[in-house]
């Protein structure tokens, strides 16, 4: 049996994150700690209910009903409707079973990362400090303002970004079919005319239920499409693969479910994956980065350049939890 305890946390965005899903101003989550003799393992539950995971309330209820000592069987029998809990507990279990000298957040292999730009006109200036910090891939939220405004911003952005930059456009499922066509057509034209900037892909242009339409659009345009909300959990990921998706998968391991099963799936099918953050703390991020280092096969930048969106001093308050 392994001793178990947990601590909820709350962090504020600075400024609030604006997406097609709405305004996100607070990140709630749970830090887990497992203790087995002198070995300590940490994990994180960082749900996003509107993205496909359980709610923070469901995650807290699950943690609160557990005893002070839990077994391996308990950890590996968490149901699929609690994917963020699956990830958090299994990650803590993996952590306790590897050599790490009791560190709260051990060092992780450094991977190239994509930085998240703010929506709207703010992107036109925000990229500069991030580029100066070493980022060469950026993600920009679209489907937030009018398509006319955003296409004008895209035209300007692709003219001012330095040579060699990669740009990802994230619609969060917020486009209509006609709008998606226009975005893809425009991106194809921009890349044909301007060799300096690569538009790497448009992420989740249509809603989850429009899978067939996204698959159809992926055949028509040179600009790639990446699924995101459609593959939020491992169950959804497996379903989209079985339905024939062979394009890019954006995977958020912290809400996908069991890291053990995710590892097996990615290794078995060699999918083209981009691993991405859900604004978890360094505890969850290191577990995700470990997976990304193992499973990334196409050298795509990970979506973890988001720390500038949240309060910076996470190390101090994490250490004060216990």
Topology record:
Blueprint: E1 2-19, E2 22-36, E3 39-45, H1 56-64, E4 69-70, H2 72-75, H3 83-96, E5 113-117, H4 123-132, E6 137-141, H5 147-160, E7 166-170, H6 177-193, E8 198-203, H7 211-220, E9 224-227, H8 234-242, E10 248-251, H9 253-256, H10 259-269, E11 272-275, H11 282-295, E12 302-305, H12 314-319
Parallel strand pairs: 5-6, 5-12, 6-7, 7-8, 8-9, 9-10, 10-11
Antiparallel strand pairs: 1-2, 1-4, 2-3
Helix pairs in contact: 5-6
Describe the model.
By secondary structure, this protein is α/β, with parallel strands linked by helices. Helix content is about 40%, strand content about 25%. The protein contains 12 helices and 12 strands. The strands form 2 sheets. The protein has an 8-stranded parallel β-sheet. Strand 1 (about 1-20) and strand 2 (about 20-35) form a beta hairpin. The protein starts with a strand and ends with a helix. Residues about 100-110 have low confidence and may be disordered.
Descriptive tags:
322 residues; globular; 12 helices; 4-stranded antiparallel β-sheet; single chain; 8-stranded parallel β-sheet; alpha/beta
- Cα gyration radius (Å): 20 Å
Give the uncertain stretches in residue-range form: 99-108
SS summary, helix count: 12
Biggest sheet: strands side by side, in what order? 11-10-9-8-7-6-5-12
What is the overall silhouette? globular
Using DSSP, what is the number of strands? 12
Mean pLDDT equals 91
Could you spell the SSE succession in H and E letters? EEEHEHHEHEHEHEHEHEHHEHEH
Helix-and-strand structural type:
alpha/beta
Strand content: 15-25%
């Amino acid at each position: 049996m392994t001793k178990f305890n947990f601590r909820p946390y709350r962090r504020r965005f600075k400024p609030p994150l604006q997406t097609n899903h709405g305004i996100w101003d607070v990140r709630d989550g749970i830090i887990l700690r497992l203790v087995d003799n002198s070995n300590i393992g940490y994990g994180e539950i960082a749900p996003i209910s509107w993205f496909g995971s359980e709610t923070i309330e469901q995650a807290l209820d699950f943690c609160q009903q557990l005893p002070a000592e839990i077994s391996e069987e308990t950890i590996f029998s968490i149901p699929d409707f609690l994917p963020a809990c699956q990830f958090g507990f299994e990650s803590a279990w993996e952590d306790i079973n590897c050599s790490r000298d009791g560190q709260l957040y051990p060092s992780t292999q450094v991977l190239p990362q994509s930085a998240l730009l703010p929506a709207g006109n703010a992107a036109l200036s925000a990229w500069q400090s991030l580029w100066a910090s070493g980022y060469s891939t950026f993600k920009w939220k679209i489907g937030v303002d009018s398509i006319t405004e955003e296409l004008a911003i895209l035209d300007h952005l692709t003219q001012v970004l330095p040579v060699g930059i990669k740009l990802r456009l994230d619609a969060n499922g917020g486009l209509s079919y006609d709008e998606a066509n226009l975005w893809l057509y425009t991106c194809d034209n921009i890349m044909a005319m301007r060799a300096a900037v690569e538009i790497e892909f448009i992420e989740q242009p249509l809603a989850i239920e429009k899978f067939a339409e996204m698959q159809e659009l992926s055949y028509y345009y040179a600009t790639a499409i990446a699924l995101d909300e459609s593959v939020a959990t491992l169950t959804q990921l497996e379903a989209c693969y079985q339905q024939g998706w062979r394009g890019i998968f954006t995977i958020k391991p912290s809400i996908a479910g069991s890291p053990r099963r995710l590892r097996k799936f990615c290794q078995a099918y060699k999918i083209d994956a981009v691993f991405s953050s859900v604004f978890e703390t360094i505890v969850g991020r290191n577990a995700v980065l470990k997976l990304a280092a193992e499973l990334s096969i196409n050298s795509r930048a990970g979506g973890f350049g988001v720390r500038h969106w949240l309060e910076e001093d996470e190390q101090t308050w994490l250490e004060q939890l216990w």
